[in-house]
Specification:
The structure is a single chain. This protein has 19 helices and 21 strands. It is of the alpha/beta class. The chain has 2 domains: 219 residues, Spore Coat Polysaccharide Biosynthesis Protein SpsA, Chain A (Alpha-Beta Complex), CATH 3.90.550; 219 residues, Spore Coat Polysaccharide Biosynthesis Protein SpsA, Chain A. α14 links the parallel β8 and β9. α2 crosses α4.
Length: 486
C-alpha cells in the first residue's frame, strides 16, 4: 500500500495528495463537522469511522477519495469532468442475500469523488446519526451508499464507474467478467462510465478490517468440500424440501424515494380485534390522516362476545364471528370486501400510534402488497411474520428452521426485519405480517390468500407474501412507516 501511495504522487504531479490517519481523521471531523463528532466517536468499529470520514472530507474539500489498497494505473484526471463519480462492485460480489433484498448491485465507497458540498454527501451526513445502531454495511458502508444514491433524483446521482474502470480484479484476485451484464442493470440508476482505453485504477480488496478467516479466498471452497457433501446428502434425503423455492423480488428496488400520489384509490379498512383488544381512538386516528376520508370505508371484526363502544364505531360495519384461526378470518374479509374497494387495509385493532401519512405512503409505494413497519416501545420488531429471509431462504436455511417437518419454526436467526435495514425506504418482504398490510384487489382476484394449511412450509401472513410473489405480485415493506401498539 506504501507503493500505491507513491504511485498516486508520481502519476499526479501537482496534486494535493493526503494520507489520513486515525488521529488526523478525528481532528478533521472535530474541526469541519463538530455536530457529527458524537456520532463519529460512538461507532463501535474503526471501519465505521473511516467510512464516515470519507463522506465528510469529500463534502468539505471535494476531490477524490481512494482506499489505501487502490492502485492507480494511470492518471485519473479524466474523471474530474464529472460533478461526482462513484464505483460499482462486480456482480460476482453480490450475495444471494443482496439479490433477495431487491438491490442486485452494490454502489461502493472505496473509490469516489466529487465537487464540494455534493447533494449525496449532504444527505448521507444528515442520515448517518440515525443509522448508528445498524451493522457496518447499512450504517456507514456500501449498502448505505447504495440506498442513499437511489434516494436521490436520477439527475442528482453520481456517474457510476463499471468495475472495469476501477476494480478489474475480484476480491478473489481473479479477473471480473460481469461488466456486460452489469451495465444495462445500472442504466436505470444513472449514467454509466465504461473503461474505454483500460482501467484507471485497480482496487485490490485487502479488506484489512475483516477477520482474516472471513476474507475472500479463491481456494476456500476446497476446505468446504466436507460441508458441501453433507448438504448434498441432505438434499437427496429431503427431496420435497429441496424443491421449495422462495423467489427473489420481481424487479430491482430502484425507486427508493417514491413520489406521493395525487389520485387516491378507494381503501376498505378492516380492523381485526385480537387478544390485545381495541386501542382507544384507532378509527379516529385512521380517519384523521392525510388520506381523503371520502375514499375510505371501515369494518370491525371480532369474536361473538365483543363489547363495542358505540360512539367509537358509529357508521362502521361490525362483524361478530368466531373463526378457527386468524387466516380464516382474514380470508373472509378479503372475500367480502375485495370488490367493494380498490385496496383492502388489514389493521391490528391494538394499534394506537399510526403516522398521519401512513396510508398515503403505502399507496405511493406502488406495490400490490405493502406493509408498514410494526415496532414495540423499544424499537424492536413486534410482528414475527413481518420479515424477509436471509440469503433468499436456500435449502440450508429452510432445513435448519425445521422445514423437514412440513412447517418452519420461525427462528428469527434466519430472518431480516424492516428495522434492521432502515436506510432503505422500501424493501421486499416474504412475510407480510398481521398488523398493517395493504392489498390490491387484483391480488385477491388472483386467488392469493392467507394460508390455513401450509403453503411452501408457511402459514397465515407468512405464506401470503410468498404466494403473492409466486403469482406475479411484488410484496414490500416500508421501514420508515412505523406503527405501534398502545
Amino acid at each position: 500500500m506504501r507503493d500505491y501511495f507513491v504511485k498516486w504522487q508520481q502519476l499526479h504531479p501537482g496534486w494535493d495528495i493526503r494520507l489520513w490517519t486515525d488521529d488526523s481523521m478525528r481532528a478533521f471531523v472535530a474541526d469541519s463537522h463538530p455536530d457529527f463528532l458524537a456520532t463519529y466517536d460512538s461507532y463501535p468499529k474503526m471501519i465505521q469511522r473511516a467510512d464516515a470520514f470519507r463522506y465528510l472530507v469529500l463534502d468539505t474539500l471535494g476531490g477524490i477519495y481512494a482506499d489505501l489498497d487502490v492502485e492507480p494505473l494511470k492518471s485519473v484526471e479524466p474523471l474530474l469532468k464529472h460533478t461526482a463519480f462513484i464505483g460499482v462492485e462486480p456482480l460476482e460480489h453480490i450475495t444471494e442475500d443482496g439479490k433477495h433484498q431487491g438491490v442486485p448491485y452494490l454502489i461502493t465507497n472505496a473509490f469516489m469523488g466529487s465537487v464540494p458540498n455534493h447533494i449525496l454527501w449532504r444527505q448521507i451526513i444528515a442520515e448517518m446519526p440515525g443509522l448508528a445502531d445498524q451493522e457496518v454495511f447499512h450504517s456507514t458502508g456500501p449498502y448505505m451508499v447504495t440506498a442513499m444514491t437511489l434516494r436521490l433524483a436520477k439527475a442528482d446521482r453520481p456517474v457510476l464507474l463499471l468495475p472495469e474502470v476501477w476494480s478489474p480484479l475480484l476480491s478473489s484476485g481473479l479477473p471480473g467478467k460481469s461488466d456486460a451484464a452489469l451495465a444495462p442493470m445500472l442504466s436505470e440508476v444513472g449514467d454509466v462510465i465504461s473503461a474505454g482505453s483500460g482501467a484507471l485504477v485497480s482496487h485490490k480488496w485487502f479488506t484489512t478490517w475483516v477477520p482474516w478467516h472471513k476474507r475472500a479466498n479463491r481456494w476456500k471452497w476446497v476446505f468446504q468440500i466436507p460441508t458441501l457433501v453433507k448438504w448434498w446428502a441432505r438434499r437427496q434425503i429431503n427431496r420435497d424440501l429441496a424443491n421449495v423455492k422462495i423467489f427473489d423480488p420481481l424487479f430491482a428496488y430502484v425507486d427508493q424515494e417514491p413520489k406521493l400520489i395525487k389520485k387516491f384509490p378507494t381503501i376498505h379498512v378492516a380492523v381485526r380485534v385480537g387478544q390485545a383488544g381495541i386501542a382507544p381512538g384507532l378509527v379516529a386516528a385512521l380517519k384523521s390522516g392525510d388520506y381523503p376520508a371520502d375514499r375510505l370505508s371501515f369494518s370491525l371484526h371480532a369474536g361473538s362476545a365483543l363489547s363495542i363502544a358505540e360512539d367509537e364505531f358509529a357508521g362502521v360495519d361490525v362483524w361478530r364471528a368466531d373463526y378457527p384461526n386468524p387466516a380464516a378470518r382474514d380470508n373472509a374479509i378479503l372475500s367480502a370486501y375485495s370488490q367493494k374497494a380498490d385496496l383492502i387495509l388489514l389493521v391490528d385493532a391494538a394499534l394506537s400510534d399510526i403516522p398521519r401519512d401512513a396510508l398515503h405512503r403505502l399507496v405511493s409505494s406502488g406495490r400490490p402488497v405493502v406493509s408498514a413497519n410494526f415496532l414495540d416501545e423499544n424499537g424492536n420488531n413486534a410482528d414475527p411474520s413481518l420479515f424477509r429471509y436471509e440469503k433468499g431462504a436456500p435449502f440450508k436455511i429452510l432445513y435448519k428452521d425445521g422445514g423437514s417437518s412440513g412447517v418452519v419454526s420461525r427462528n428469527p436467526v434466519y430472518r431480516i426485519y424492516l428495522r434492521d435495514q432502515r436506510v432503505f425506504t422500501v424493501l421486499p418482504l416474504d412475510g407480510v405480517g398481521e398488523s398493517f398490510v395493504l392489498i390490491r384487489r387484483e391480488v385477491v382476484d388472483a386467488g392469493v390468500r392467507f394460508a390455513e394449511t401450509p403453503y411452501k412450509l408457511h402459514l397465515g401472513a407468512e405464506a401470503f407474501g410468498i404466494m403473492a410473489r409466486d403469482k406475479g405480485f411484488e410484496v414490500a415493506g416500508l421501514p420508515g412507516v412505523v406503527v405501534r401498539r398502545s
